[in-house]
Batch of 4 targets.
Target 1
Amino acid sequence: MKYYLEKLVEGKSLQEIEMEEAVEEIFTQDTTDAEIASFLTGLKSKGETAEEVSGW
């Protein structure tokens, strides 16, 4: 999750495959509530792209 959070903090968009991996990690790993909140906040702050949303 750290990789995806760092990209979002830098204002970079996630590629569709990265978004798929991030969401899969949220549901299959021991991702904390704080990490999930940071991920969603990072997407909101940066502004979601169509590619990111289609990766869900």
Target 2
Amino acid sequence: MSKRYAKLGPGEGPNYDWENDHTFVKVSGQDTDGAYTLMEDNLKASFALGLHRHDTHAETFYFLEGAVDFYVDGDWHRCTPGTTMHVPPGVPHACRVADGAPARMLMIFQPSGFDGFLAELATMTEADFADEAKMAELNARYDIVPMGSVPAHPEDRV
């Protein structure tokens, strides 16, 4: 008989070690019948994610370590350990690590799906990433609407 629950320890779960972050899927969409996905994201000192929105899913971020500058709907916020940021569907957002130092956060995607996006990215080649039509189709399938680079931060030197 299979277990009716799941337990993952530190460093366990499907993971994706990218150039700018190392993400662990802690609770997959399969575990929740599509209700949500829970992930741990270890942001490297170079991490930045351009402006984008999701039209049908919400994201909630809980910050564990370090600091992240989070741009949401035109406002910048410094998110430090213990901070929660909830981004409803349709709200543009972007982020970057603060002070060039690593950070760590939990992310909840509701409904689930982002874990599938990462799994597909992990199978792609450099040529796939360079194929604008393929990337547009993948983004559309996973409700990712790119809107540009990370907006200028008030602390940036002009």
Target 3
Amino acid sequence: MELELINKALEFEQRKMRGLSNSDRIEISREAKALILDLNKIYKTKKDQKIMDIMKRLTTIKQKVEKRLKGAPLV
């Protein structure tokens, strides 16, 4: 179970993130959030630093996608 989840997270990291529509970005953001929450459950029991590193990288991807979704701030 946990190995499947880790592999799914690593595959998610390798995806191409170019030329996405807004609906694709929303989907990616939601999927990243779900993966992070599931990995966090495993991390709470195992305390494995590798899992924490994966969660950090996924969070970075999620933040970049959400930043793009919100658009540039108006000055």
Target 4
Amino acid sequence: MSADLAAFPDRQTVADKLAALGEADQAYLRLLMENAKQDENLLEGLALHLDRAADARFLNALKLEKLGEWLGTVAPARLQVRLTETARSSQHAAYAAFRAGLTRCGGLERAYPKA
């Protein structure tokens, strides 16, 4: 039964929320990040969103940078390394734009400060 609960939301729903990123979508994603069991769904949705952006005819780099900044700012420390891994998983410009926003916000450095 708990496996069924962790399967919701699916990655398409998360990708759609990340693409829109309105106030309601941000609240939904914040709620999703509060539960560690939902981490895989969030990351799979992020990967799908970045893949869709990479396949799109028009690359909205500013929107992807904003997404990277927002996720890097609001995501809990447990997700920061995995977000960075996702951002570095491809050399495509969509991933590079997301990575630039993620790096700019400094979420990884806040989560794991240098000694």
